Amino acid sequence: MGRSRISIYRHRLLCTKVLIGSGLSAIISRERYADDPSGLCIVREASHAAIISAMAALDGEALDFAALIIDRGRCTITYRSSPVASIPLYLTVRENAVWLDWDYYRLLVGQPLLINTDIACAQIAGFSTYGTDMVVPGLHRGTAGASLSITKRGIEVSLPSPVRHEMPGGVTSEADLETLLFNATRAILEARPLERGSTAIELSGGMDSALTSIAAADTMGAGLLSIGAQFSGTMGEAQQERRSLIRQRCQSDDLSVPGERFAPFGPESLRRTRYGVLPEDENYPELFEALFGMLRSAGIDTLITGLGGDELYVAFEGEEGAPHRQESSVSPFLTAAGSRAATRGRGRYPAGWLQETCWSGAASQAQRVLRYGLWPVHPYQNVELARLIARLPRAYRRDRALLRRTLTRVLENDIFEGSYVKETFKPVALRGIRENREYLLDLVRRSELARSDELDRAALVTALSRDVEDMDHETYNALFRALKVICFFQ
After folding, report:
1. pTM, full prediction
2. Domain 178-323+353-426 = CATH 3.40.50.12780
3. Which helix (H) or strand (E) holds 44?
4. Which helix H or strand E contains 362, and what residues bound it?
5. pLDDT at 446
């Protein structure tokens, strides 16, 4: 339409089909299966029926995909996301033009500072805000299973219908669920054209990345590059023991960086740039920048992660341990008006087979991996695997019992079933706040958001002025969330 131009993101693990018709065109980009041809396929003079058929075929896709449909007759552009949505597209409309990009920063840099106060307050309160509307008014995001249509009337959103989770069933005494879980994880990896020399495994020392790493090594063989952060103290010693055990099992070449060296908010952090890091982004972009930079230098273009592992073992409503839905904000840094805004701004996305934190977690990492030329593979973020685990009795999902037992079998070591000391980012975050206190205090004092009626700027200044090491856990979490939002809008 007019002077429109679309540049397609090209990667070895993707294949893209462009169907060009007289009035209707479509660009379908999806993850490749192992036997798919690589690269770009362009079909000119495609019939309307062929394009509609190609779009309908996406309903059966097991891997991630995205599609852009251009209807010249109706003057409409529609963006459709898969139910996985690991790489969202962002779009905005300005100056009578539609701008689309997987990198939100390129859409926002140089634009005036605008704040969706309701969503900003919801993020400070710790509510989920996953949805097509963003913390910047006018910026929209493609979300799992949704379609966004840009017409002359504006942007129209079609959300997916909520799924109805199957009730857990019984398991026969002969069922070997540990083998089933491991083989399913391997099959998800084997479906893709992975190559050992250009693939790295994320190895945090946790349970989720442990299983995906072992499955990857069994799929591609010894010699994969493993990468992760190393923490200190008792937590770090336990983490180091687990990482060492898994590295030996995988026979991987390992890269690790000291996590404390990459504390947040430092002088080189992207958080010191307006619109640099979305508030809902991961807590440690500084660390990932270093890790992903090393991967690129080592010739890596694919990263296998353990993202979404926690969410597989969720407790459903009515089961023991089911999450309690927080209906109101109790953040010490929001006023009464801010709490009301947070309630208005919280997301209520239709339920899917994957959990909201799967989608938001993948979205938060998407910018960083693509900027470094990496394609992320999240084996746990698979609809069929999620459905399989959801049908298991609660005893297998409680405290990830099935995952722990599976790791004991493949490692021939019960370290994950025994005394498991989970790693936490909190000490690194506290160091970042402490070492950059003056910068953060100055930022809060001049912040337009902090001066609003919804935020208690005095409470923020008081919290930053005291010893953050003595802060209780809930106050620390609330402060960190508030600082992330304020940094974004500096």
Report:
1. 0.94
2. no
3. strand 39-44
4. helix 356-371
5. 95
